[in-house]
Write a structure and sequence with these properties.
Layout lengths: L1 H19 L4 E7 L6 H11 L5 E7 L6 H11 L3 E5 L6 H10 L5 E4 L11 H9 L5 E5 L13 H17 L12 E4 H7 L10 H9 L5 E5 L16 H13 L6 H26 L5 H24 L7 H32 L3 H24 L4
Parallel strand pairs: 1-2, 1-4, 2-3, 5-7
Antiparallel strand pairs: 4-6, 5-6
Helix pairs in contact: 6-9, 9-10, 10-11, 11-12, 12-13
């Protein structure tokens, strides 16, 4: 009887040591509507990381499907599981940054919670970083042995390859798969780079490597991209603009914010929408030019508001009554922006009659006004 009791106490002490000991590795899982996948991922991590002191931090953007509560229930039984529930802010990059900063482990890894990333690769990544020869280890679909598998549609695979080529050409990122979202790095190196990173967008690993400006020692390991098991992909066609914004921001050494670049690109689409609407109103409906111009202006502003709400401010996306109120304030802000545009252009042209210079200065002034005031009023932080 005594021996059994001692045996039980030994097992308890082993369990306590495992639970209370410091984690060497933190796995960050950014989530949105992944309630069915999180329990599976935690179980897979437990098997893959046997013998490793690890923890997982689920950073959930207040999923309506109860992902945060599911994770909290698991955490009640397994102290290695932690939950950060974000309210009023969204975005994969921002979630990854918060999760990695919340860790105190020597190494941090980021992977998707949708089961498309192969968790069995984590021990190999950890081994590479433990060697002290590398700062970051990236799971690549494009080195020998890697494959996109069935996880990407042909269109998304084409888009991913194009984005990879752009990153290598313009940012000089020497990676076979700079768009990978599955990686592990030393936390001390991440902390050094964190102030330069954008909390917007989806390509946090590309941001990290580009911000390192060639100083990070990189190791790539092959992996096969698996098919999603539950839920739906959060990526859409608007992510392309988001990615281009990050690309341009890095080209200019982060002197221009990604959000402003997104706002400006949306504004560029607004010019096209305006001209198309104007042509239709004049040619098909025969409206007087002044009336057609006014209607086309509101059509373009509505388009800009919709796209900005979907893309530029996806982390502060307006819904319901807030959406209606936001649209009204956006109309007012842009109306004053037009006045600022014309006023500045007229002032410059009077003193220096170079039409393109005056026009460009007015357009920039209007864009900056619209961005600053929209940021403060329409999509202000809650």
């Amino acid at each position: 009887m005594v021996s059994n009791t001692n045996s039980e106490q030994t097992e308890v002490s082993k369990s306590d040591a495992r639970v209370t000991g410091p984690a060497e590795l933190t796995v960050v899982l950014p989530t949105y509507n992944e309630s069915k996948n999180v329990p599976i991922v935690v179980e897979l991590l437990d098997k893959a990381l046997a013998g490793v002191a690890w923890e997982v931090i689920v950073v959930d953007d207040n999923s309506p499907d109860g992902t945060s509560q599911v994770t909290a229930d698991i955490a009640q039984k397994d102290p290695r599981v932690r939950i950060i529930q974000r309210i009023g802010r969204r975005g994969l990059s921002g979630a990854c940054i918060e999760g990695m900063l919340a860790s105190s482990s020597k190494y941090v890894a980021v992977m998707d919670a949708d089961l498309q990333h192969d968790e069995s690769l984590l021990p190999k990544m950890l081994e590479a970083l433990r060697s002290q020869n590398f700062d970051i280890c990236v799971a690549s679909r494009h080195v020998e042995g890697g494959d996109v598998g069935t996880g990407l549609s042909s269109v998304r695979a084409w888009g991913s390859n194009l984005a990879n080529n752009l990153a290598r050409k313009f940012l000089k990122v020497e990676l076979s798969d700079p768009m990978s979202g599955f990686f592990m790095l030393r936390r001390d190196r991440f902390v050094e780079l964190a102030p330069r990173l954008s909390s917007q967008g989806f390509k946090i690993m590309l941001d990290i490597v580009a911000s390192g400006k060639g100083a990070l020692r990189v190791k790539e390991l092959p992996f096969v991209f698996r098919e999603r098991q539950h839920g739906e992909s959060k990526l859409d066609t608007l992510v392309t603009m988001d990615y281009l914004g990050l690309l341009v921001s890095k080209l200019f050494n982060d002197t221009i914010s990604v959000r402003f670049l997104m706002y400006s690109m949306v504004g560029g689409t607004g010019v096209v929408v305006h001209l198309i609407a104007l042509k239709i109103l004049l040619a098909l409906f025969g409206l007087p030019f002044g009336v057609a111009q006014l209607i086309a202006t509101f059509v373009a502003m509505s388009s800009n508001f919709f796209l900005n709400n979907r893309l530029t401010y996806r982390d502060r996306r307006l819904k319901g009554l807030a959406w209606v109120k936001g649209l009204f304030t956006f109309y007012v802000i842009c109306s004053f922006g037009i006045l600022a545009n014309v006023g500045v252009a007229e002032l410059i042209y009077t003193n220096k009659p170079i039409w393109w210079f005056a026009g460009a200065a007015g357009a920039i002034m209007g864009a900056v006004w619209n961005y600053i005031v929209s940021n403060a009023l329409t999509w202000r932080k809650g």
